[in-house]
Amino acid sequence: MLREGQNAVIYRADYQPPAYWIDTVDLCFDLDPAKTRVLNKMKVRRNPQVAPQPLKLDGDELNLARVLVNGQGTSFKMEGDRLVLENLPEGDAPFDLEIFTTCAPAKNSKLMGLYTSNDSFFTQCEAEGFRRITYFLDRPDVMASYTVTLRADKQKYPVLLSNGNLVDQGDLDDGRHFAKWVDPHRKPSYLFALVAGQLVCREQKITSRSGNDHLLQVYVRAGDLDKTEHAMNSLIASVAWDEARFGLPLDLERFMIVATSDFNMGAMENKGLNIFNTKYVLASQATATDTDFMNIESVVGHEYFHNWSGNRVTCRDWFQLSLKEGLTVFRDQEFSQDLAGEASARAVKRIEDVRVLRTAQFPEDAGPMAHPVRPEQYLEINNFYTVTVYEKGAEVVRMQQTLVGREGFEKGLAQYFQRHDGQAVTCDDFAQAIADANPGSHLANNLEQFKRWYSQAGTPRVKATTRFENGTYEITLSQSCPPTPGQAAKEPFVIPVAWGLVGADGREVAGGMQVMTQATETIRVDGLASEPVPSLLRGFSAPVVLEWDATDAQLLALLEHDTDPFNRWEAAQRLGVRRMLDAIRGSGAITLDDAYLQAMRSILRHPKLDAAFKELVLTLPAETYVSEQLDEVDPQRVHAVRESLREQLASALAGDWAWAYEEHKENGAYRPDHVSAGRRALAGLALTHLCIAARSSGDTVWPGKAYQRFKDASNMTDRFNALSALVVSGHELSRPALDRFHGMFRGEALVLDKWFALQAGAPDRGGNVLPVVRSLMQHPDFNLRNPNRARSLIFSYCSANPGAFHRADAAGYVFWGDRVLELDGVNPQVAARLARAMDRWRKLAEPMRSAAREAIARVAAKPDLSNDVREVVTRALAD
């Protein structure tokens, strides 16, 4: 299973248990940015189930000073980065292994292992970062008990944190001090963490349902303490929810969150010591938008829920990554829905989650990096922290809940934790536990077939045809799945299809759940007086593409009458996509019809619909989603058509947008609750459309109002919505507004990320965005080594602005290639993520397709590429 060389492909089928177990780990760190000393004392024993063989320990960029076995020096050799020990004690008795190494955290730009950021120490060990700290069996199925002693200069690093419970601390000679931590739970090395630095914390003591007291702490830099209240409240809500919903209590005396501005990921669930990107901790109404507040709640919940689904029960190997990530994404989605409360707010959250899936995961399923939820092979595991493993994995868990019911799923999850607590297991083990707790359920009866969701890549397609005759209505559903790399033929999936029938009077006449197991199945309803309109895949009951040739009249009927909020939203999406595709495939011109405009007006003016739902319905489908419906894509044409549709929607409904803005712009004292956030979202959408309409008409009133709103806003959501309206509409006031925004927030890193991203993601007018991006790379506040800043500018252009990125002169591709190569020398994980921007190059129209291939080949030709980038570009070029 473990790699033997830099370019070795690792296969799930090759998994072998470790030849040795590590029972205890005693680590002592003498922290110094230039040279940190790490003394690692382990209790090791042979695995009697594996034939005797040398002990091979993983390492990466370490300086080895000493190796002792049972206190005595021993011979060793190096195989690449691995430390190989052959002359070890025979028999099954444990032996002591002591390894002394040094590393250079200040030079660690990869941000994996132990590194420094803003004069503090942090770690990131998932997936394979612990080997950059000490030599170890760096694999998730090796679980040990950890004792950690940290020593450092007390003035420079007054806070010393690690996993578990603080058992001792004190002063040392020469102005140094120490802290000793013991983790009461065995864990794999990827969950190890330490933090040291100048930090302050917000504390909260809580008492759990079970009556136990716990200390919750959120650590940040001194100037950020006032932005931690929402993160703390989210953590408290997470602890309460997990115990109430699933009976899973907090199992530690204290639980800590630490925020850093240099972090490759969103956050990391290290046992008891979660390390977060500041983006998902810091929030105040002056600096964070409603979306930021909601994301913090979700991510704090996600990492806390890992305490059980990932930490107490972990992955046997990295192919099982969705065991913890898919399950925990599902859990954080349920958490956010439950906190939203009312049905409409829950529906908005569901739609937002599906929108991410369809705009990001469906294209991944159709591209060169397509892989099953449980991959079969990888060159670099960091490349498989994907929307397939996370978001599609969550949908696979959600389907299991659908098939056994909410109560049945809770029973199954209890069975899973009872059966596997303290173990490293597989996706099969999870599905088996859910099924075993629900005998006779659709899941239990079709378990082996259901598990194809874990093993087969690609997005299944469900085609629906209907027939109405003599009062009988039939819906015939046929499933298929297109070929993906390495998987030409696919077997039928288990697909739960929630459905309903809407009668001519708008009332529901029938409904149910069809659990598909065959290639073709038919739903039949008798005794109908007139032909109904089918409402299929309600609530997005399965992650599939629904192929249903609905008429405009049917979609308009669903938009007006469907009781399922998801399908109501979906009807509006289909109406918009249909009009865009007709224009893209035709002359490129689009003229909106009265029926569509009136439907949009009716939604906007509807007296009973929530503002948040209205905003979702009236937001046009994303360019990436529209492009996925085409066999060949000209991104500039897609962009032009979408902009034209938006301009017509803005002008035709100008009076309605003005009403919506005035009706929703004032919300009293700022609160990031769902109702208030929905009102601000709709007001922001209205203001954007009003500024777009003003551009066409030459009106200066609404851009002036937007600029005034920008200056006077009492919260970041309203301020940024106004700024965005000016930038998106291309009004001349956008430049002074952008300059003013930068002046107001030059000391707020997360706010400046928004400033960079807004400019890089702006609509392209005559090729103006790339020059702006190049100029911003020279800005004093831009830093390529900071992942957040790189993502805010470069990714916003290359990955999120297709109309500007895919230029006829290929300058966008040249820029992409230069940045991938530049980032690869600094931080391969970030570089590989950027490399994914070209995944769908084969769909491009010429001459863009040839130019894109040439750019990818230029990157692939570099001889010393990291595994991270090499895997992405090699798969992109593969036939």
From TrEMBL:
One of its GO terms (molecular function) is metallopeptidase activity. It is an enzyme of class 3 (hydrolase). InterPro entries: Aminopeptidase_N-like_N, Aminopeptidase_N-like_N_sf, PepN_Ig-like_sf, Peptidase_M1, Peptidase_M1_dom, Peptidase_M1_pepN, Peptidase_M1_pepN_C, Peptidase_M1_pepN_C_sf. It catalyses: Release of an N-terminal amino acid, Xaa-|-Yaa- from a peptide, amide or arylamide. Xaa is preferably Ala, but may be most amino acids including Pro (slow action). When a terminal hydrophobic residue is followed by a prolyl residue, the two may be released as an intact Xaa-Pro dipeptide. Its cofactor is Zn(2+). Residues 552-878 form the Peptidase M1 alanyl aminopeptidase C-terminal domain. It comes from the Bacteria. Its EC number is 3.4.11.2. Signal peptide: none annotated. Pfam families: DUF3458, DUF3458_C, Peptidase_M1, Peptidase_M1_N. Residues 458-548 form the Peptidase M1 alanyl aminopeptidase Ig-like fold domain. Transmembrane segments: none annotated. Aminopeptidase N is involved in the degradation of intracellular peptides generated by protein breakdown during normal growth as well as in response to nutrient starvation. Belongs to the peptidase M1 family. This is Aminopeptidase N. It comes from Ramlibacter algicola. The lineage of its organism: Bacteria, Pseudomonadati, Pseudomonadota, Betaproteobacteria, Burkholderiales. The gene is pepN.
